[in-house]
Specification:
Length: 60
Amino acid sequence: MNYYTCFDEQGSVIARCQTSQDIEVLKRMGRPIKEVREMRNEESVVCSLTGSPSDFNMDY
């Protein structure tokens, strides 16, 4: 499974998403997503161990 990190214009993490559909939902909600990067395997393992990436997204 692929996980993605979304960044704003200042390079700050604003969301971690599990699917590209999650990213599209955030864009429609008006989140200022400037860049999306796929997480490395070791980063995504941490996400799966600590909970869903959507737990980081307080908007939905």
